[in-house]
Amino acid sequence: MLKLYAMFLTLIFLVELVAAIVGFVFRHEIKNSFKNNYEKALKQYNSTGDYRSHAVDKIQSTLHCCGVTDYRDWTNTNYYSEKGFPKSCCKREDCTPQRDADKVNNELIGIFLAYCLSRAITNNQYEIV
């Protein structure tokens, strides 16, 4: 019984290791795919509550950001021309954003720090002791 448990743990570890290696090898393709899909979701954003719009709202409110790279990404969308920035771009809970850029999140601290960490790991991966 203990050998079976050890075998399952080893199998799970190997699956995680393979997933990590595949993620590392294809990191640029994964990043581009996420970026393209997120840009497409911004273009098709509406306030009716479909799953793409809900995902965009959730990402922006959780990461405290607005748009793909910054709030100016919204200016190319139909939603912006009709209603301005979405509520998920707000810095504060009680704001009602229209077209005022000072009311929206334009800092991407979390994404920037994740990028810096990824870059540091990539640059130091072949350190010789």
UniProtKB/TrEMBL annotation:
Superkingdom, taxonomy of origin: Eukaryota
Subcellular compartments: Membrane
Main location group: membrane
Keywords in alphabetical order: Glycoprotein, Membrane, Transmembrane, Transmembrane helix
Any one Gene Ontology cellular component term annotated for this protein: plasma membrane
Keyword Mitochondrion in annotation: no
Segments crossing the lipid bilayer: 6-26
Topology in the lipid bilayer: Multi-pass membrane protein
Any matching Pfam family: Tetraspanin
PANTHER family, alphabetized: TETRASPANIN, TETRASPANIN-6
Family statement: Belongs to the tetraspanin (TM4SF) family.
Name this polypeptide is given: Tetraspanin-6
Organism per entry: Macaca nemestrina (Pig-tailed macaque)
